[in-house]
């Protein structure tokens, strides 16, 4: 399978960076910006991503469509592509590669909806940060029929094929995100509660004494979280679904979704990644989140 033209839907923080990396290495990168925000348009232009202007053109022109969006939008996008596919006189050229943070059962349901419309479907997941200039590629895990064709994108992108039925790549993403974004949700609870109870300095001192590596990791990761919280709500809900499907209970990560829903509602959650002024270190982040809770109580 040729991979000369790849669509990025949508060119947000991760999507535009992946698109830029592909474009810089000679691959035609396109999107459909109909109805998209000014920010998405700016990021697409910055990355050299061409606007085809319609879903039909994406399906007819592209070799692959990378779906990279908040997980609660993944199903709607598949349905949108299916609607466009039903209007084609011939089978769609593009294979839809769902790289969103969704439960394995969600991935299999989306596959069924895509394939019913004649669209080939691959499951996937992204682990790691956006490949900004000078940074390495995240790991893009894919699985499903003929997924091996995407290994041709190495070394531009770190593509890794996962064996097994559709949903295996999503399962890997869900399990990994449990111990990254899930742990961050627990950390927000503990740090902010300690601040509210007046024992913030003592709590951080105890962490430094016996969990220095964890404290260092959280100090590096948590300040970058607030502008992404709106995306992580859906991701926590998909993790909850993953564990519910496995018979391990869903309530822990339903609660984690509530934590990110709270962060999204604060002024920190309204900022965008490329223009941060608040909560850029752990202490300021915790202070501002505690202030937001206090304000909500009065």
Helix fraction, binned, reads: 40-55%
Q: What is the approximate shape?
A: globular
Annotation, overall tally of beta strands: 8
Could you report the average pLDDT, rounded to the nearest whole number? 97
Query: Major beta sheet, specifics?
Result: 8 strands, mixed
Number of helices, where a helix is a run of at least 4 consecutive DSSP H or I residues: 12
Distance between the termini: 60 Å
The fraction of residues assigned to DSSP E strands is 5-15%
How do the helices and strands follow one another from N- to C-terminus?
EHEHEHEHEHEEEHHHHHHH
Short description:
This protein is of the alpha/beta class and 298 residues long.
């Amino acid at each position: 399978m040729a991979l000369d033209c790849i669509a990025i839907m949508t060119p947000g923080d991760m999507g535009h960076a992946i698109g830029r990396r592909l474009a810089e290495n000679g691959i035609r990168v396109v999107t459909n910006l109909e109805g998209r925000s000014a920010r998405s348009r700016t990021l697409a232009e910055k990355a050299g991503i061409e606007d085809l202007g319609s879903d039909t053109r994406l399906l007819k022109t592209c070799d692959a469509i990378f779906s990279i969006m908040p997980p609660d939008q993944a199903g709607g996008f598949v349905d949108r592509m299916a609607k466009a596919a039903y209007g084609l006189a011939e089978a769609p050229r593009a294979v839809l590669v769902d790289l969103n943070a969704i439960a394995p059962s969600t991935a299999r349901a989306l596959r069924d909806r895509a394939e019913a419309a004649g669209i080939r479907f691959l499951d996937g997941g992204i682990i790691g940060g956006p490949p900004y200039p000078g940074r390495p590629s995240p790991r893009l895990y894919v699985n499903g029929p003929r997924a091996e064709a995407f290994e041709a994108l190495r070394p531009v992108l770190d593509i890794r094929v996962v064996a097994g039925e559709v949903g295996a790549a999503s399962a890997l993403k869900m399990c990994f995100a449990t111990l990254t974004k899930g742990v961050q949700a627990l950390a927000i609870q503990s740090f902010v509660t300690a601040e509210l109870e007046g024992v913030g300095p003592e709590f951080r001192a105890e962490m430094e004494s016996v969990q220095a590596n964890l404290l260092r990791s959280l100090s590096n990761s948590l300040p970058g979280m607030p502008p992404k919280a709106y995306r992580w709500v859906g991701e926590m809900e998909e993790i909850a679904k993953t564990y519910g499907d496995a018979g391990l209970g869903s309530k822990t990560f339903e609660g984690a979704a509530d934590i990110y829903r709270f962060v999204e509602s604060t002024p920190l959650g309204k900022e965008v990644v490329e223009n941060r002024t608040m909560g850029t270190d752990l202490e300021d982040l915790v202070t501002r989140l505690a202030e937001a809770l206090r304000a909500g109580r009065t």
